[in-house]
């Protein structure tokens, strides 16, 4: 019955008890509403969930209030462009879309290489709103999709917590996940990325599956198959589900918890989920051909063997006969399975684990073999500070929750423990996977909080009953009578409980303050608009990116081709509406290496490459005037590495001096003459950037540049934004032969 | 050693047979349906081995529809079997309705996947 739950941002604590005396004397008199206790509890729960729902939504709106309602970052611009296409042209065009505006001259099969869940969801919301005659722009829907689904995730977390433990844990889980920075980082308003919807789908699938295992009902298993389908349509991280669920089933089988309910739940989910997942073109036949999905199939076959053995055991009442049968069957099954797997892998039919996921098992793999994966900052291993930053008190509540889970082991708690441990391992390998671990950490911590608070308040309650000398009705009456002797011998138990409760309340309020601060400071910047503090403390905005893209849109011919580093590809196509050479999809490493080679070569060689690619404009990002440190010069070494990975003529040591990357007078000659250097520092030698420093002082690198007198032969400057952050150059046609 | 193994196998076979005769008729019907579905799947695999696997999606949808409906029938059998204590209070009509719903979804997806 009604555990004590604490909405982190509410001002007063409300307590429900079963004793009628306390209701009379409590702060808010429910008697005037003539509600029974069960109804009071329901009202409280609904009120808390409603507040949490609103809280999850509004906590993510910082950037909309501070800047404007716009799409953040890089990837969301692609999602926005595809959603726009979907709403304008319809589903059939979208599903069969071949885009010639990116990856010139190769093009990209967009319909077959994206996860449509996010776009379809946003389009459905848009059409639903239009049906209700709310004519909003699709961009507003895209910006607010992530907070909306974050609110829905809190509801699913409540039901999941209720399934694993009880309603108190569910409420605490909902509150914790509503403001947890690990989740907020990828679901602020404006972060229109796959994870916004995927975490909701992930938690929903897990909840429905655990519900199916607990009840053994085919309907819930069907629900979990649909949840899995939604997850597959939303994000490539569905591989986590298709491996965790079989692993969980395997653990249950090993610990002797095989049951009919498990059989029904897993089989229905696997078959229907697999079939539904194969409807997504991007996934295709991977469920039967890829090594990452073989675990699920193996466990499926193992379940059939288990069921068959169970049935035979039931039919025969003779154990000795059954033992021989068991031996024969198990050995033959393992042999057949092993041979099939071996033949499949050796013949190449079952493809091995792809680099993206293999680097999770072997973190050193990407750095040596696939520099593009290693270059993404989100793929680096996680530092302890990131864990503390994103989880705060949940870090030590997690082991406490694990303890409670192990104390009360059931099929559901085993699942959440496995989910928590595996996801935390992967979160340690790659920073962006902290997001996947967040729901598990919140749920397990919620169990710890809820169980602790429940124990403490039950201590308080029994003490009060004894002092009432009145009725002995209600839960714990037998415990009260046995505890009377105990309580009288430890008079400080009640004070201790109150002190601990105050401590818990203090911790949770600090958590809320930390989460709000983190959201406000770290995770609410749009990345496309930069902000800084002026000399008088006023806020200065650098809107250079959009300035450059709109210049491209309005001042270049419609069939112009833009060469830039792949980071900016999606933004250029979405906002500039021009063809790009490479973009963030990074599906063709050789094409990116060609661009990298062009950027690292001197102007004549680069001109050859640009002519072969029909490039009309080159776009570079330069942070020397503003001190912006994520510019192309700081990314330059990655261009060299990726280019050098395909074209051995580009060698990284050529650009370094004694292993050090320098841009001043002591820089290597190859560095001083490469295209990127020239394009970034053209005319920069005449500019004074800081008082007291010589002209040509690079504020991002903190040094005076080496080559100030730059002459461009094959390119001419087309546009430089007001703070010199984005610089666009026109490629001159070849001179007439005389 | 071989003699005892064959004798064991024969004993196994006889006891299984005699135990199976005692199962109720409705369960036997479901078992027959499962055998039919698996047999159809095996025929399809044999045909694929003969003529090659193009188009692969049609082959997969055919085989998976057989396996899928077999598995769902086994789940129905579990839920309807009166000797399973876990499902004592589940009405057989509810079990059958779930079975029909799941089969409906399965075959709709199969029809979409057939190509």
Automatic annotation (TrEMBL), chain A:
Chain ranges of the Oligosaccharyl transferase STT3 N-terminal domain: 45-444
Biological or metabolic pathway of the protein: Protein modification; protein glycosylation
Keywords: Glycosyltransferase, Magnesium, Manganese, Membrane, Metal-binding, Transferase, Transmembrane, Transmembrane helix
Ranges annotated as spanning the membrane: 42-62, 109-129, 141-161, 167-184, 196-222, 228-251, 263-282, 294-312, 324-350, 387-405, 412-428
Signal peptide (UniProt feature, chain positions): none
Pfam families: STT3 (PF02516), STT3-PglB_core (PF21436)
Keyword Membrane: yes
EC number: 2.4.99.18
Superkingdom as given in the UniProt entry: Eukaryota
InterPro entries on file: Oligo_trans_STT3 (IPR003674), STT3-PglB_core (IPR048999), STT3_N (IPR048307)
Similarity-based family: Belongs to the STT3 family.
Entry annotated with the keyword Transmembrane helix: yes
Native species: Camelina sativa (False flax)
Reactions listed under catalytic activity: a di-trans,poly-cis-dolichyl diphosphooligosaccharide + L-asparaginyl-[protein] = N(4)-(oligosaccharide-(1->4)-N-acetyl-beta-D-glucosaminyl-(1->4)-N-acetyl-beta-D-glucosaminyl)-L-asparaginyl-[protein] + a di-trans,poly-cis-dolichyl diphosphate + H(+)
This protein's name: dolichyl-diphosphooligosaccharide--protein glycotransferase
Location of the STT3/PglB/AglB core domain: 562-619
Broad enzyme group: transferase
Cell compartment(s), UniProt: Endomembrane system
Membrane topology listed for this record: Multi-pass membrane protein
Main location: membrane
Cofactor: Mn(2+); Mg(2+)
Phylogenetic lineage: Eukaryota, Viridiplantae, Streptophyta, Embryophyta, Tracheophyta
UniProtKB/TrEMBL annotation, chain B:
Entry's localization field: Endoplasmic reticulum membrane
Keyword set, alphabetical order: Apoptosis, Endoplasmic reticulum, Membrane, Transmembrane, Transmembrane helix
Annotated TM spans: 30-50, 56-76, 96-114
Transport in keyword set: no
InterPro entries xref list: DAD/Ost2 (IPR003038)
Membrane topology recorded in Swiss-Prot or TrEMBL: Multi-pass membrane protein
The keyword Cell wall biogenesis/degradation belongs to this UniProt entry's keyword annotation: no
Metabolic or biological pathway, per its Swiss-Prot or TrEMBL entry: Protein modification; protein glycosylation
Entry's family note: Belongs to the DAD/OST2 family.
Protein's job: Subunit of the oligosaccharyl transferase (OST) complex that catalyzes the initial transfer of a defined glycan (Glc(3)Man(9)GlcNAc(2) in eukaryotes) from the lipid carrier dolichol-pyrophosphate to an asparagine residue within an Asn-X-Ser/Thr consensus motif in nascent polypeptide chains, the first step in protein N-glycosylation. N-glycosylation occurs cotranslationally and the complex associates with the Sec61 complex at the channel-forming translocon complex that mediates protein translocation across the endoplasmic reticulum (ER). All subunits are required for a maximal enzyme activity.
Protein name as it appears in the record: Dolichyl-diphosphooligosaccharide--protein glycosyltransferase subunit DAD1
Native source species: Camelina sativa
């Amino acid at each position: 019955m009604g555990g004590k739950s604490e909405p982190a941002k509410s001002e007063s604590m409300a307590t429900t008890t079963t004793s009628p005396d306390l209701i009379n004397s409590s702060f808010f008199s429910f008697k005037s509403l003539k509600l029974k206790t069960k109804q009071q509890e329901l009202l409280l729960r609904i009120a808390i969930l409603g507040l949490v729902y609103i809280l999850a939504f509004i906590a993510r709106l910082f950037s909309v209030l501070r800047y404007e309602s716009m799409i953040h970052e890089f990837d969301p611009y692609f999602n926005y462009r595809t959603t726009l296409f979907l709403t304008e042209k319809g589903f059939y065009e979208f599903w069969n879309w071949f885009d010639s505006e990116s990856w010139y001259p190769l093009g990209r099969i967009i319909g077959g290489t994206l996860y449509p869940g996010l776009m379809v969801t946003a389009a459905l919301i848009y059409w639903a709103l239009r049906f209700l005659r709310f004519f909003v722009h699709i961009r507003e829907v895209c910006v607010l999709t992530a907070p909306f689904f974050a609110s829905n995730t809190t509801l699913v977390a409540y039901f999941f917590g209720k399934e694993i433990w009880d309603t108190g844990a569910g409420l605490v889980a909902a509150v914790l996940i509503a403001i947890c920075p690990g989740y907020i980082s990828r679901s602020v308003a404006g972060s229109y990325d796959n994870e916004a919807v995927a975490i909701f789908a992930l938690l929903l699938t897990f909840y429905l599956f655990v519900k199916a295992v607990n009840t053994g009902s085919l309907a819930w298993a069907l629900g979990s198959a649909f949840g899995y389908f939604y997850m597959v349509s939303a994000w490539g991280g569905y591989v986590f589900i298709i491996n965790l669920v079989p692993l969980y089933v395997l653990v249950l089988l090993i610990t002797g918890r095989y049951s009919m309910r498990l059989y029904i739940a897993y089989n229905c989910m696997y078959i229907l989920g697999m079939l539904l997942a194969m409807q997504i073109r991007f996934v295709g036949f991977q469920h039967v051909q890829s090594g990452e999905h073989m675990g699920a199939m193996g466990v499926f076959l193992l379940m059939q063997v288990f069921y068959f053995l169970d049935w035979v055991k039931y039919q025969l009442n003779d154990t000795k006969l059954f033992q021989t049968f068991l031996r024969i069957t198990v050995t033959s099954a393992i042999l057949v399975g092993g041979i099939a797997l071996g033949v499949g892998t050796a013949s190449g039919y079952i493809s091995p684990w792809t680099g993206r996921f293999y680097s999770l098992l072997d973190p050193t793999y990407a750095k040596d073999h696939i520099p593009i994966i290693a270059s993404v900052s989100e793929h680096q291993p996680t530092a302890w500070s990131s864990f503390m930053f994103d989880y705060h008190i949940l870090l030590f509540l997690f082991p406490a929750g694990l303890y409670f889970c192990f104390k009360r082991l059931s099929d559901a708690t085993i699942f959440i423990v496995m989910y928590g441990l595996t996801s935390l391992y992967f979160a340690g390998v790659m920073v962006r996977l902290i997001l996947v671990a967040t729901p598990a950490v919140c749920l397990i911590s919620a169990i710890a909080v809820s169980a602790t608070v429940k124990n403490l308040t039950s201590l308080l309650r029994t003490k009060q009953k004894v002092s009432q000398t009145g009725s002995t009705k209600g839960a714990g009456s037998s415990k009260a009578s046995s505890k009377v002797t105990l309580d009288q011998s430890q008079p400080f138990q009640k004070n201790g409980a109150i002190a601990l409760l105050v401590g818990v309340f203090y911790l949770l309020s600090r958590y809320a303050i930390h989460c709000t601060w983190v959201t406000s400071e770290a995770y609410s910047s749009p990345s496309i608009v930069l902000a800084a503090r002026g000399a008088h403390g006023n806020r200065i905005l650098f809107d250079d990116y959009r300035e450059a893209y709109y210049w491209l849109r309005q001042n270049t011919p419609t069939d112009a081709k833009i060469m830039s580093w792949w980071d900016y590809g999606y933004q250029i196509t979405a906002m500039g509406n021009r063809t790009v050479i490479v973009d963030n999809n990074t599906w063709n490493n050789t094409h990116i290496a060609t661009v990298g080679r062009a950027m690292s070569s001197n102007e004549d060689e680069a001109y050859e490459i640009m002519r072969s690619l029909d490039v009309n404009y080159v776009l570079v990002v330069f942070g020397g005037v503003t001190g912006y440190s994520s510019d192309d010069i700081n990314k330059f070494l990655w261009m060299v590495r990726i280019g050098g990975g395909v074209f051995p003529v580009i060698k990284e040591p050529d650009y370094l001096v004694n292993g050090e990357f320098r841009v001043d007078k002591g820089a290597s000659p190859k560095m001083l003459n490469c295209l990127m250097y020239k394009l970034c520092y053209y005319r920069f030698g005449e500019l004074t950037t800081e008082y007291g420093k010589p002209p040509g002082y690079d504020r991002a690198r903190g040094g005076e540049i080496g080559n100030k007198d730059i002459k461009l032969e094959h390119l001419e400057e087309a546009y430089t934004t007001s703070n010199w952050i984005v610089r666009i150059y026109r490629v001159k046609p070849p001179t007439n032969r005389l | 050693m071989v003699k005892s193994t064959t004798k064991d196998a024969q004993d196994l076979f006889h006891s299984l047979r005699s135990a199976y005769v005692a199962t109720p008729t409705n369960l036997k019907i479901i078992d027959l349906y499962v055998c039919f579905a698996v047999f159809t799947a095996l025929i399809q695999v044999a045909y694929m081995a003969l003529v090659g696997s193009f188009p692969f999606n049609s082959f997969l949808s055919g085989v998976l529809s057989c396996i899928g409906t077999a598995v769902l029938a086994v789940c129905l059998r579990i839920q309807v079997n009166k000797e399973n204590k876990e499902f004592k209070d589940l009405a057989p009509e509810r079990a059958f309705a779930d079975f029909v719903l799941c089969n409906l979804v399965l075959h709709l997806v199969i029809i979409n996947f057939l190509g």
